[in-house]
Amino acid sequence: MADKGQKKTGSEKNTETEKTKLIPVYVMGKKYLVPETLTIMKALEYAGYRFIRGCGCRGGICGACATVYRKPGDYHIRVGLACQTVVEPDMYLTQIPFYPANRASYDFEKLSANPEEIFKLYPEVFRCIACNSCTKACPMDVEVMDVISAVKQGNIEKAATLSFSCIQCGLCVSRCMGELPQYHIMQLARRIYGSKIAPRAEHLNEAVDAAKSEECRQALEKLMKSDVKQLREIYKDREIEPEMAAEDWTPVRRDYL
Ligand code: FES
User: What tens digit of pLDDT does each residue of 185-214 get?
Assistant: First the structure.
């Protein structure tokens, strides 16, 4: 993130002409006036910062925009995603685009589904003091401490299921007194569960077979031989899943699958 000063862009001037109320926020100690309706991420850009790192999907999915802030008169340190959290008057904030956490290296193919594998790679899992700070820090409402407990109990399935919504933002690690790398541990649990414990999904096998089929190869070849105009036509003509589709919705046309 780089500070480019308070120079106004066209869209910023438009925002001002719409008479949106401006509120003060403090970014790394410096005061800026920003529209009260903006998320922290947009407010930082309004203030003249440009994101080089610490920004990805802008939709609460990628976990790149961890932010830490404090509200006036409140001793709590708060955390959240900059792309999802709306600014509040006089908040003090900064971005933590990356939080260093120990990441074990392993050859996944050689790992078994035995929980001992996780204990060997991440012995610090037993440093958890069950303070629950990790859970309180999670912007995705993952019960992080419960996941760590499940890992310690050797219940990889439970750990994987409970941590399904983790977006790897690292905020749990930033608050952990035991210095655990929770998000790496949870990710390993999900990998082991998905690859070595969960039953094989038949529909996935079918999809893999379809991807390897001659029909699919020919369809891809046809696409590769198409020019830009033809590709645009194919794209415009594609069958789109309706917004309110039933859970078992599948496309009627299968010729391009
Ligand atoms: S930018 Fe991806 S979660 Fe905020």
Answer: 999 999 999 999 999 888 888 888 988 999
For residue 122, the model assigns a pLDDT of 98
Q: Among positive and negative, which fits the CA dihedral 194, 199, 200, 201?
A: negative
In ligand 1, the atom with minimum distance to the C-alpha of 60 is 3
Atom of ligand 1 nearest to the CA of 167: 3
Q: Please identify, by atom number, the ligand 1 atom nearest to the C-alpha of residue 62.
A: 2
What is the SS3 string spanning 205-230?
Answer: HHHHHHHHCHHHHHHHHHHHHCCHHH
In a domain, 6, yes or no: no
**Bridge partners of residue 232, in order along the sequence:** none
Distance 64 CA to ligand 1 centre (A): 5
Out of 27-36, 169-178, 207-216, least confident range? 207-216
Task: Among 40, 65, 168, say which to mutate for ligand 1: greatest number of ligand atoms within 8 Å of CB.
Answer: 65
Q: Please count the structural domains in the chain.
A: 3
133 and 81 together in one domain = no
Element holding 147 (H helix, E strand)? helix 144-152
Give the domain range for residue 232. Answer: 202-236
My answer on whether 156 and 190 are in the same domain is yes
- For ligand 1, residues with CB inside 6 Å are 55-58, 60-65, 81, 83
pTM: 0.77
- pLDDT band with cut points at 50, 70 and 90 for residue 256: low
Same-domain status, 228 and 183 = no
